[in-house]
Design brief:
Elements (H helix, E strand, L loop, with lengths): L22 H4 L4 H33 L2 H9 L2 H16 L7 E6 L5 H8 L5 E7 L2 H11 L2 E4 L5 H4 L5 E6 L8 H14 E12 L4 E4 L5 E4 L2 H10 L3 E8 L6 E7 L2
Parallel strand pairs: 1-2, 1-4, 2-3, 4-5
Antiparallel strand pairs: 5-9, 6-7, 8-9
């Protein structure tokens, strides 16, 4: 890798956050800036690598138990999920549209995706998104719905701005590190139509953001903090409740894009 350290080009390399910087207008080479932005670039690359490790270790966990997780989701947890899906559909039904588009973000084996597909009031076109290939395949076979195997942050690559009426994310956003959550919320807001509905949930018994013993990431936050985060992005909180799904206490918030 050849780095051009000439005046006016402090650090020109593929990973550089800043190139063609301003030293030339100062009339100096400013070598201290070279080191400053070299450190920034390396730190940024390390952070990206760590984020990839978080994603991969979480996917690996579900890939290794996809069928057993599916059995659990469709078994004892189905009734527990019904509270969230019913409340979400009730809020969606207030929107004036003959057919509503819904994205199940972190759809897993497709349990809730199937509920949305079969909904008569409101009628929904349901699309699943999950990063685990094995769970995506199960979801497709069980629901017949389109399921995209992708990371959550790729939403904007698949959906146009203001095109989705509802995003449902039950027990999945907690796998997003808090440092990345704000950016993801902005992406979700971007693809939501005006008046669109977002259901989000996090374990709420403690305030913790880090690796679990099984390799997955867990972003757990008190319900009050959960609401504050959504409001800070301009979302209107319209319903708040608890869910006891997956052996936990989950704070669930339904919010609206105005």
């Amino acid at each position: 890798m050849n780095w051009d350290r000439s005046p006016g080009n402090v650090l020109s390399c593929p990973d550089a956050a800043f190139t063609k910087w301003v030293p030339e207008k100062w009339g100096v080479n400013a070598p201290w800036l070279q080191y400053k932005f070299l450190i920034f670039s390396v730190a940024n690359s390390i952070a990206m690598s760590e984020n990839e490790n978080v994603v991969n270790s979480t996917i690996d966990n579900y890939s290794g138990r996809a069928q057993s997780f599916s059995n659990w989701a469709y078994g004892t947890e189905a009734n527990k999920a019904a509270l969230a899906t019913n409340k979400f559909l009730a809020k969606l039904s207030e929107l004036t549209s003959d057919s509503l588009s819904v994205v199940d973000l972190g759809c897993g084996p497709g349990r809730d995706l199937e509920v949305f597909k079969n909904s008569k009031s409101p009628r929904c076109t349901a699309i699943g998104v999950d990063a685990c290939p094995e769970l995506c395949e199960i979801a497709r076979s069980k629901t017949g719905c389109e399921v995209m195997c992708a990371e959550f942050r790729d939403l904007e690559k698949f959906f146009k701005p203001n095109s989705i009426h509802g995003i449902f994310s039950l027990a999945s956003l907690f796998h997003i590190p808090r440092s990345e959550l704000s950016g993801l919320i902005e992406i979700m807001i971007q693809v939501l139509a005006p008046g669109g509905i977002l259901l989000s949930s996090f374990p709420c018994g403690r305030d913790q953001d880090g690796n679990m013993s099984d390799g997955r990431w867990s972003n757990s936050m008190p319900l009050e903090l959960h609401q504050q985060v959504l409001k800070s992005h301009g979302l209107e909180v319209i319903d708040v409740f608890h869910s006891k799904i997956y052996n936990g206490d989950w704070g669930v918030v339904i919010s609206k894009k105005n």
